[in-house]
């Protein structure tokens, strides 16, 4: 895909068509929330929509790529396109960033058309920032669109969610992902199925794994988890190793792995689970589904703590997570 203009990914075409219909009918809301799994292209879709709205001469629902608006977007310098995200080194979106945004939205668009804001991730706003944003959502300026990109909509204030038109973007099916991913894997000896499963079916996450050592790291995490699950190493020893790594990425990987276990329990083919030792697979199959779901919910709470501003003790968090996993396995004996 060319860098500019941005086109929706193949699995986003239906959503893109609906957005174009709203634009043509003059019924585009003042605020949208693109929600869905990480790595499926929500930010990309938001940027494609921004480029379309800021184009002065769109052609059949696509930016022309030649007008002044497109030229400014091509060099990432359009004064009416604002991106709000955590500042470098910060976890959250601060209230000062939102207040500055509100000031910008109160001014006339410099190019005389739309003003478009992409805010990602929406759940990274602290309470003060979210409350400050409410004013813009309650009293939207004309020809202004706010697109909130969100990985966990339940973590966003209900008052924010209720003032946005929600668009739940589904993870694409495996056939779509394979068709898109295979041409990008030329020269790689990694099975596309392994890549997809490791990424939880998220195509952009899978692509990023090709360009890093992420798969090797995940193989090492899985080896430690298997050793823990079979009694070869303790939870404290594993936690001591894991806390030196990217703990947020590790917890996200563990959640993907747990969802693989849940799908495998109900009969879905899961390559990563099928490669585990037989005795461990037998124990995994016997874990009560209700307990497994409760464990996943607790893991999601741990993830929110890591992403928030509470700065939990990572070693203790991992120890508790792994001890709970050991207790869960004991229920399957």
Automatic annotation (TrEMBL):
Q: Which reaction does it catalyse?
A: DNA(n) + a 2'-deoxyribonucleoside 5'-triphosphate = DNA(n+1) + diphosphate
Enzyme Commission code: 2.7.7.7
Q: What keywords were assigned to this record?
A: DNA replication, DNA-directed DNA polymerase, Nucleotidyltransferase, Transferase
Q: Which SUPFAM superfamilies match?
A: P-loop containing nucleoside triphosphate hydrolases
Q: Name one Pfam family in it.
A: DNA_pol3_delta2
User: Domain DNA polymerase III delta subunit C-terminal: where?
Assistant: 213-325
According to its UniProt record, this protein's enzyme class is: transferase
Indicate whether Nucleotidyltransferase appears among the record's keywords: yes
Taxonomic superkingdom: Bacteria
Task: Work out whether the entry's keyword set contains Nucleotide-binding.
Answer: no
Name the record gives this protein: DNA polymerase III subunit delta'
Which organism is the protein's source?
Cellvibrio zantedeschiae
């Amino acid at each position: 895909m060319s860098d500019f203009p941005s086109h929706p990914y193949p699995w986003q075409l239906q959503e893109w068509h609906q957005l174009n219909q709203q634009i043509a009918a003059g019924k585009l809301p003042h605020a949208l929330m693109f929600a869905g799994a990480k790595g499926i292209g929500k930010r990309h879709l938001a940027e494609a929509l921004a480029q379309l709205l800021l184009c002065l001469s769109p052609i059949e629902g696509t930016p022309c790529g030649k007008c002044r608006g497109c030229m400014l977007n091509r060099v990432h310098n359009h004064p009416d396109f604002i991106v709000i995200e955590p500042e470098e080194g910060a976890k959250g979106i601060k209230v000062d960033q939102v207040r500055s945004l509100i000031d910008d939205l109160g001014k006339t668009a410099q190019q005389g058309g739309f003003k478009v804001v992409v805010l990602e991730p929406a759940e990274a706003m602290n309470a003060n920032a979210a409350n400050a944003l409410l004013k813009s959502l309650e009293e939207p300026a004309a020809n202004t669109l706010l697109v909130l990109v969100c990985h966990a909509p339940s973590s966003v204030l209900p008052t924010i969610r209720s003032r946005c038109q929600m668009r739940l973007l589904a993870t694409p099916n495996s056939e779509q992902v394979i068709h898109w991913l295979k041409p990008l894997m030329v020269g790689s000896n990694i099975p596309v199925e392994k890549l997809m499963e490791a990424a939880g079916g998220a195509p952009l996450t899978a692509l990023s794994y090709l360009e890093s050592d992420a798969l090797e790291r995940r193989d090492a995490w899985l080896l430690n988890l298997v050793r823990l699950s079979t009694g070869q190493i303790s939870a404290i020893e594993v936690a001591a190793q894991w806390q030196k790594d990217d703990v947020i990425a590790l917890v996200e990987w563990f959640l993907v792995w747990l969802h693989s276990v849940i799908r495998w329990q109900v009969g879905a083919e899961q390559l990563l689970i099928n490669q585990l030792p037989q005795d461990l697979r037998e124990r995994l199959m016997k874990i009560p589904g209700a307990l497994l779901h409760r464990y996943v919910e607790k893991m999601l709470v741990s993830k929110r703590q890591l992403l928030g501003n509470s700065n939990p003790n990572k070693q203790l968090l991992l120890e508790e997570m792994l001890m709970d996993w050991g207790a869960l396995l004991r229920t399957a004996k």
